[in-house]
## 1
Amino acid sequence: MSDSMIKVALIGNPNTGKTSLFNHLTGLNQKVGNYPGITVDKKTGICKLSKTQKASILDLPGTYSLNASSADEKIAIEILNDSSNKFYPDLAIVVTDVEQLKRNLLIFTQIKDLEIPTLLVINMADRMQSKGISIDIPQLEADLNTKIVVISSKLQTGINDVKEAIINYASLSTKRSIAAEKITQNTITNPELVNSLSKLELKKIQHRETIIRYQFINEALKKSYKIDREKASDLQAKLDRVFTHKIFGYVIFGVLLLLIFQVIFEWSSVPMDFIDGAFGSLADWTKETLPEGMFTNLLAEGIIAGLGGIVIFIPQIAFLFLFIAILEESGYMSRVVFLMDKIMRRFGLSGKSVVPLISGAACAIPAIMATRNIESWKERLITILVTPFITCSARLPVYAILIALIIPSERVFWFFNWQGITLMLLYLVGFAIALLSAYILHKTLKIESKSYFVVEMPKYKVPLFKNVAFTVLEKTKAFVFEAGKIILAISIILWVLASVGVNDTFKNADQIITESVSKNGFNEIQEISLSNKIARYEKSLVEEAVEAKKTITALDINSAIAEKTPAFREAVIEDEIAALRLENSALGTIGKAIEPAIKPLGYDWKIGIALVSSFAAREVFIGTLATIYSVGSEGDDEEANTIKAKMQSEVHAASGKKVFTFASGISLLLFYAFAMQCMSTLAIVKRETNGWKWPMIQLFGMTAIAYIAGLIAYQFLK
Amino acid sequence: MLTIADLQKGEKAIILDFPLDTIPLKLIEMGCLPGNEVMLIQTTLFNGPLFLTINGSNIAVRKDTASQILIDKIV
């Protein structure tokens, strides 16, 4: 940060449009981080004021006052009270909402007590006329000892006036608005006072202080703030009568959720297919273009595949956060918090747990970060602990392939079929176990923490595009970077484990397979996989001909197939070698080592490998199985069908019984529903709870539940 | 004595007093102070939180908090 940069701190109540102003001032030059050691979002950005001058803007968390009763407020006080703090601003901008001016001015009078150059911004000017509000600005400026800029973050008016005021910050008044002697025991200017008093004494003083401040504000506003109540429309009240209705309120919320999830699945399937294809081709291209060797394999199979595993989830996550951002920006989400509080409280959660739980359906990482606004530590901790039970995007590909394998696709009635119903049940099971474990934690955790619930119901408003877009960007970034680095690292580790041999079979895999094939010919399974490849080729030939509007005879097809068959045989042998290598690699050894433990659940060592790899990210399950079952990864739609066929014909080596039966399939589905198989989530939980204790409890607890559920399911169904 | 929890939907009252040790400071900062007006907007099922207008702000609080705030009904 250069010295010529003006340091600005934005401060104000939540829902005043503070973040909108921040977005207008900084545009994309912003970043969100953490204050060292605590989990309070730190938003900073750079604003270009003129050709030569820039300002660094710090967006402090939205708070109602500077009384240090939450981590958010403590940060604000620490920064504003300490001129040696590196964030200490040259000027403070207090953002207020014209309709809530009285309440919003409380924090303004506190900031003024700190004698920092202060600018008062009154936002939502576009609403003044419709609400019948008029303000005598010069009068109010004189009474409050400040400069006032009136803006509309919706219409983007007044933003340049704010910039101009920042440039001329030196001329802003540093005089208090309330005479110092009026508040004899001032906890804002005298932070030592806070530590020397008992909690109740402190509250008494703060209470008295608040009354004096409000008296002053009322006096000031009486002279300059006029509101013509006749003009105020009651649309807001009408909306609330519907959205917070005792019964319709819940119905509307339920329908809205269903619609949102429906739309997310529809919208994200196209970009996801595209990403899947693109990374598949990129890996192939890398292998073909670069010289053969360890590094190329690492790049294609470790790094590119790992990156693909991250990027593929961006569409679903971005779409879900788009909807959540719209619901929050519009003011509706606060109503949901209000509606759901009592229900959630029975399970030891808070109404505010609803947002993290919904977000968990995309990805647990941003969801766990969204628990920060839950005031009670116990409620927040329980929310953090149970959120990973919610079915996240990474579970879906695993569910999809297992369901396709063991559940018939018959229609039941209307458009429902058994497969769809199973998927829905899995979502419900995840949600139910989240609530159940929350209830148990609520009853067993001995944490004293005051649970209070005071939630402002902001005015309904049309969401601002910029705010929504920035939120989506920020949440998606949290996923990509937080989860990304770990998924990538583990993908590489797994690749290494899979590429390191533990015996001679690994080294001589190609020789062993080639010899066995030349001596005995293809076995049954190899024949199936060869005929699958041929069938697929035949289908593509026909499709090509249809597309080119050419006729193709059976003879043509046969000769084309005959020509290609040696190559296909070669590919089958290659796949077989890869499978044998994996079996005798370090990873294969791990799979075999855990086989006794997972046998009662109906799994063999191959599934064991897939379970271990799933700790990188759950969806790695499929890719691992593809390699083990020597399908090869060709990255097209047919691949899934091939894996499916392979899984279907897979038998236990000892007994010759099928591996994937209804029983073992359900057992696996439940295992994936409950197990804590996401290192990235554990890392975030460690950060949010300040230690390894809770993530370890989560890891062992969830995995134990998964094991027991899988065990019961398999033993009963087999 | 009446408290906010005794209000019917749509009724208004003036805040008289509350126990300082148990009422969250945040509520006080939002304008829940003796002499200010409070109105009950909406209730929820199973004795859930109350939706109030206090001092011109819409605020939801739990019933146990509301039942500690003494009021005088405006008729």
## 2
Amino acid sequence: MARPRAFNEDTVIAQAAEAFARLGYEACSIDDLLLATGLQRGSLYKAFGSKRNIFEQVLTAALGAGFESRGQDLDLLITALKELASEDQPIAAVCREAIATLGESAATVLGTRLLDNLE
Amino acid sequence: MPTIELTNDCLIVHLSRLEKFQSLSGDITIALEDVRGATEDKGATADLGFRAPGTHIPGRLWAGTFIKLEKPLEDHSQPKFVYAVVPGLPAKFSKPGIYVAGQYLGEVSPGFVLVKAPMTPVVITVNHKKWSRLVIGVSNPRELVKQINSAIAK
């Protein structure tokens, strides 16, 4: 019997984004995501299918207008470029689009964000 | 260890004779279009639900069909107690909000499981009439997850 979902997908995406930005993609386990979102394992798999699919939705949501001024969203873009873009075509396409909106300042914006870690 | 083969249009889980006996199942073939995704998930075996039917040696072997009853989150119309679980049968005796006998009204997600310690479980979510996911213990989880996810992205 189908039951309506008892959680708000946007909230879950925002909570997952925080976990991915803090831990990176590979290091963020399903248990970390369950802890961050408060969902049960079955609900998470049922709603999203896989960790990769959650990350794709998180990334698409993060790279909306004005993402270059939001630290967490830049961290997500850096994570995607570092860990997934070389092998995952759909995620590489999302990254390319975001880089294109930054234009020539892309390298400066990403580099500045990485160097912020030193402060 | 089960081997997973990816052909052009199918994902096939090959089981050894012993594994077929332990899980009371044959090889499993699923069309790629019905595969939703794959994830390496070390904690998957801690959260499988009850076995029906199959073999379970705690901490060592999980084989067969496992059914997990997902507790409804904040839905007060859902029953608090479940006396008997027979997926597919109507709820015969129930008092809304208190109990139900005959059928569980929350989410029931049966999974096919074959994990032997110390292999790492990979969770493959599928659209299948019998199972909602396959949990297979393998020695090369990261490679396998990448292969499956790139095969379904094509």
